[in-house]
Design brief:
Length: 333
């Protein structure tokens, strides 16, 4: 009987251990299921602009992975090409410009889901260092390059012309695609100036080829230079993935503000510039990033007015139909 009792006790202990192990396995399964990765195709309007470096920072620091998001990253030569890819269903999320909200009014199958950045501190107008353009007044009737027709860079050139009292066409624009193409056109005197990101302008300045004439962040205060767009299919079929992407994005912005050294290290690799120059760009550009993704009413008013003034749309759109903030992190809503 004593032996039988010991045997039964042993079996009971074994069974209890088995059950405990099973409970641990079952308990461990939930986090694994919760962390099932969702792959999202994310497009940048421009490949090397610091505006979109947070995507790379979030990937390389594991912030997106922490939120269960795997990124397939794509880059385009301007806003129009990004929106074409989104219209074709090739991209789930686009990192583009505020003026691109007009594409939605024209029927693009996307929605503005977050304000990425506010005042346009990223963009400048550069001219030849020893060229004939000395002041803004000298730009009247001249030609400047932009990335593409309908792009943020074109919007800035037309807005500069409008503010000078020349109408939106007082400065001529030509879409040349990449920064490299624009730079080449300026060096060979095919254009009188370029609307480019400040990093490109700094590189040109360092080479003694150009200087900055206009900083658009000083000229346009109420604005959304960048917006995050979501394809309507993603909004309908996997809104949770979009919400997790946005949560990761704004966590990345907070991380970058607290970790300049790591952000500069990653940004320097992405933009193929020196850490010293990237540090300078970081200091100038970081303040423009939105911390919560909320759209500003005054910035939306500027955008909708501009669509009519620039002939993009026949009348001012209802901006509430072009944006949707419900996918933002709960604290921002």
């Amino acid at each position: 009987m004593i032996g039988m009792t010991r045997l039964t006790t042993t079996r009971r202990h074994a069974f209890a251990a088995f059950c405990a192990a099973g409970m641990l396995l079952t308990a461990g399964a939930a986090p694994l299921a919760a962390q099932t990765m969702t792959k999202l195709r994310v497009g940048k309007a421009i490949s090397v602009a610091f505006s979109f470096v947070p995507l790379d920072v979030g990937i390389q620091t594991g912030i997106f992975k922490k939120h269960g998001i795997e990124i397939d990253e794509y880059s385009f030569g301007g806003s129009s090409k990004l929106q074409q890819a989104m219209a074709a269903g090739s991209i789930d999320i686009g990192l583009g410009s505020g003026p691109e909200l007009a594409f939605i009014a024209k029927g693009a199958p996307v929605m503005g889901v977050a304000a990425l950045a506010n005042e346009p501190s990223l963009l400048v107008l550069e001219v030849q260092k020893d060229g004939p353009i000395r002041t803004v007044a000298d730009l009247k009737g001249k030609t400047v390059s932009v990335s593409t027709v309908g792009s943020l860079t074109e919007w800035m050139a037309h807005e500069l012309s409008r503010q000078q009292g020349w109408g939106t066409q007082g400065i001529k624009t030509i879409g040349l695609g990449t920064d490299a193409s624009q730079t080449s056109a300026l060096i060979t005197h095919q254009v009188d100036g370029n609307v480019v990101d400040v990093g490109t302008a700094y590189r040109m300045e360092a080479q003694g080829a150009s200087h900055i004439l206009v900083r658009f962040g000083d000229m346009v205060k109420d604005f959304h230079i960048h917006v995050i767009f979501g394809h309507r299919d993603l909004l309908a079929k996997n809104p949770d993935a979009l919400s997790r992407f946005l949560a990761a994005w704004f966590e990345t912005i907070a991380y970058m503000r607290q970790n300049k050294a790591k952000s500069v290290e990653i940004g320097a690799r992405v933009m193929s510039v020196t850490p010293e120059m990237t540090s300078r760009i970081y200091d100038e550009i970081m303040p423009m990033f939105s911390a919560d993704g909320k759209f500003r009413p005054k910035a939306l008013d500027v955008l909708k007015r501009s669509y009519v003034e620039m002939g993009v749309l026949p009348s001012e759109p209802d901006m509430s139909k072009l944006i949707n903030e419900k996918y933002l992190p709960a604290a921002a809503r």
